[in-house]
């Protein structure tokens, strides 16, 4: 084996160290290179808008037209600064629907091609269309003489097009119990201005692109004994009842492992898969021994406290609920972009309208900065 003297090794070592130092000093080019796809083909005509959010600036800062192959480049004011909670994202409007890419929060993300996925649209009939209900998780919590309900829906559009509502119509609707009161919508990935509670039903008018969308509804029931409307099929269904609670039976679901919170709270759990009954009937049952308790505090606490970061996927054939993580920034970014666009489209907004816009915008930015 050849042997090298110091006169050969030292120059080689010096070259290696110099090359390493040069690589470490290469500045990151603050340019967002990306591409817009419609389905699996490039978008040939369109404008990409760059948004910046930090402690000083929030809103649109630049725009550019896409090339014939769907590509685009946008120069950033600088690389993202994590110490200022800074992020960038790009959005494009196609066929009347806004689409956006992921939030850029680190310089290393600029090394990859930024992709915005758009789709062609399909106009829903006036009454809406059936959409796959992938998971539904209902949490019962005693609140004095009544019960506070947190109802988590996870929809899945299995089509290859974005569903949109016709004028005056809806994309999807779903009934709540007829005794529900104090209904609050707008948590999760679908904001309160596009999902409403009307005449006993949730109504979604927002565009619904392919894939999953999750939202949270909160309401009050006078008693845990209730008929819960369940039209269509639900792939994964869980009902979780906070203890202490009377013994309950739920037609269509079976008792499963209870869930214990770190703070000491325990939720009795009923689960089912492919539930396809018109109603889930919750009725008083006979006292039974408690089922096994599984400690998954982090998962359940996130659902109840944050209201929309996680949805459960559990069922009668599973021993443990499996969390489905949804990026909460997705819906917040879209709502912020939609709010800016709508306000900037007004010719002469009143002072009250300006104050409302600024208040809503500040709240969205606060939620965006505190989301994970």
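Q: What amino acid sequence fits the structure above?
A:
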């Amino acid at each position: 084996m050849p042997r090298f003297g110091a006169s050969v090794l030292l120059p080689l070592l010096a070259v290696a160290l110099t090359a390493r130092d040069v690589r470490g000093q290469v500045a990151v080019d603050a340019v967002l290179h990306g591409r817009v796809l419609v389905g699996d083909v490039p978008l040939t005509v369109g404008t990409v808008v760059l948004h910046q959010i930090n402690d000083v600036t929030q809103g649109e800062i630049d725009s550019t037209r896409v090339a014939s192959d769907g590509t685009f480049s946008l120069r950033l004011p600088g690389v993202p600064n994590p110490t200022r909670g800074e992020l960038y994202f790009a959005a494009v409007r196609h066929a009347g629907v806004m689409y956006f890419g992921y939030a850029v929060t680190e310089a290393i993300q600029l090394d990859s091609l930024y992709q915005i996925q758009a789709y062609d649209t399909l106009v829903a009939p006036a009454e809406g269309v059936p959409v796959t209900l992938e998971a539904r998780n209902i949490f019962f919590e005693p609140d004095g003489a009544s019960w506070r309900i947190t109802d988590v829906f996870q929809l899945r559009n299995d089509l290859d097009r974005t569903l949109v509502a016709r004028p005056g119509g809806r994309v999807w609707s779903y009934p709540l119990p007829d005794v529900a009161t104090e209904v609050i919508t707008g948590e999760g990935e679908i904001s309160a201005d596009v999902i409403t509670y009307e005449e006993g039903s949730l109504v979604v008018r927002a565009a619904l692109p392919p894939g999953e969308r999750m939202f949270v509804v909160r309401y009050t029931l006078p008693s845990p004994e209730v008929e819960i409307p369940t039209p269509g099929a639900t792939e994964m269904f869980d009902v979780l009842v906070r203890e202490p609670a009377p013994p309950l039976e739920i037609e269509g679901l079976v008792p499963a492992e209870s869930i214990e919170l770190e703070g000491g709270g325990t939720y009795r759990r009923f689960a089912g898969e492919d539930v396809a009954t018109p109603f889930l009937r919750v009725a008083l049952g006979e006292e039974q021994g408690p089922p096994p308790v599984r400690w998954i505090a982090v998962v359940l606490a996130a659902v109840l406290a944050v209201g929309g970061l996680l949805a459960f996927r559990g069922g009668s054939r599973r021993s443990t609920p499996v969390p489905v993580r949804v990026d909460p920034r997705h819906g917040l970014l879209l709502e912020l972009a939609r709010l800016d666009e709508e306000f900037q489209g007004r010719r002469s907004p009143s002072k009250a309208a300006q104050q409302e816009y600024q208040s809503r915008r500040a709240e969205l930015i606060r939620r965006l900065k505190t989301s994970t």
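Q: And what stands out in the fold?
A: Residues 31-118 form a domain with the Immunoglobulin-like fold (CATH 2.60.40.10).
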